[in-house]
Design brief:
With about 350 residues, the protein is an alpha/beta fold. It is about 20% helix and about 20% strand. The protein has helices at about 50-60, 130-140, 195-215, 270-280, 325-330; strands at about 5-10, 30-35, 65-70, 85, 100-105, 110-115, 145-150, 155, 180-190, 225-235, 260-265, 295-300, 310-315. The strands form four sheets. A seven-stranded mixed sheet has the order 6-5-3-7-9-10-11. It is elongated and about 95 Å long. Residues about 90-95 have low confidence and may be disordered.
């Protein structure tokens, strides 16, 4: 009598568990076939670059808005303490406390409320140099990084504060800034005095100097393509007392940037936003510096000192340094008259 046909059953390794071990009966009609063990290691680097990037997207956030919040300490009266730039521990770690948030963004570049995304895939940077460079392009190239520039005092360096760049502002991390393709600058007005404009100008100038340092390097050129700048007031300042035209000319420090394809300026008057956007893109030519006249004044250090004469500029703290009126007229941008309510040379 011919033997009965055997039935082969394939069993995957995940079907076998320690709690429910696999048993076989004495029936000759069933035979269990286990797949052979994988003995050859999988070569990830042999995959096409597009497939490797798809794998990186599974571990790293992409098309998101990355924000850095510096933990602020407060006086008992409710006023914020000067933001302190901490040093390093003996292990080389940065002691400044940062809170990193990663959120999905919409088409206009604004973050979606309540959608928090983070994947702990930064271990990819520790595999090898080649994978680290590819993963770095995904993390820094496909996300928008939001940098906050406030008008509060920083310690010990206030005007050229490295806190402008968040945790990337330290010397050993500044090289990562050249990989950023999209940056959002949130310029915040915290006080209604001349120190706000002074600190904004100095910190924006520091931002421009660092970005241009990489943009002018042929070997390590900057990859920045999109820049969004937003000027807004602190929540503690009532909107009825906030006048954007008193603080908007601090943004003219960004005019030193050139060749950025997509530029959006908000929170300022429309005519100035158009001028600054066109200037940063490299259109419309250069902006001429205003020639402010000098006046002679008498000053003395204290009541016991002698009176000394000095020449000072007639430019006010909220007045521009560059001639945006001439730039607007020459580029066909509608300029509000008379003088847009701004003190210009030759006006009173």
């Amino acid at each position: 009598m011919a033997g009965r046909a055997r039935k082969n059953i394939s069993v995957l390794p995940e079907d076998i568990s320690e709690k429910a071990p696999l048993t076989m009966d004495n029936s000759a009609s069933t035979r269990i076939v286990l797949p052979p063990k994988w003995t050859v290691p999988f070569r990830f680097m042999d995959l096409p670059a597009e497939m490797r990037v798809s794998v990186y997207h599974m571990f790293l956030p992409h098309n998101c808005l990355v924000t850095f919040d510096c933990l602020t300490y407060w006086w008992p009266s409710g006023r914020p303490l000067p933001r302190k730039i901490e040093g390093f521990t003996t292990d080389g770690f940065d002691k400044t406390k940062w809170k990193v948030k990663v959120r999905k963004i919409n088409a206009s570049g604004d973050e979606k409320e309540g959608v928090l995304v983070w994947r702990g895939g930064t271990v990819l940077f520790l595999v090898n140099r080649f994978i680290s460079n590819e993963a770095r392009a995904v993390l820094y190239g496909t996300n928008t990084f939001k940098l906050d520039i406030d008008s509060l005092p920083h310690h010990p360096v206030s005007l050229s504060s490295p806190l402008v760049f968040g945790p990337l502002g330290l010397d050993h991390r500044l090289g990562l800034l050249r990989n950023l393709r999209s940056i959002t600058l949130d310029v915040e007005v915290n006080t209604m005095d001349h120190w706000t404009v002074t600190r904004h100008r100095a910190r924006l100038r520091h931002f421009v100097d660092v970005i241009k340092r990489h943009a002018d390097d042929a070997q390590q050129a900057s990859l920045l393509k999109t820049l969004r700048v937003r000027l807004n007031n602190d929540k503690s300042i009532h909107h009825e007392f906030y006048q954007p035209k008193k603080f908007m000319f601090a943004l003219e420090e960004l005019a030193a940037l050139r060749g950025i394809e997509h530029v959006v300026i908000t929170g300022v008057e429309e005519w100035f936003a158009q001028c600054l956007e066109r200037c940063i893109k490299g259109d419309g030519g250069d902006v001429r510096e205003l020639d402010w006249p000098l006046v002679e004044v008498k000053r003395k250090k204290d009541c016991y000192s002698k009176v000394k004469k000095a020449w000072v500029s007639t430019r006010k703290w909220d007045s521009p340094v560059l001639d945006w009126r001439e730039f607007a007229i020459s580029n066909g941008i509608q300029f509000p008259w008379p003088s847009a309510g701004i003190f210009w040379p030759g006006t009173t």
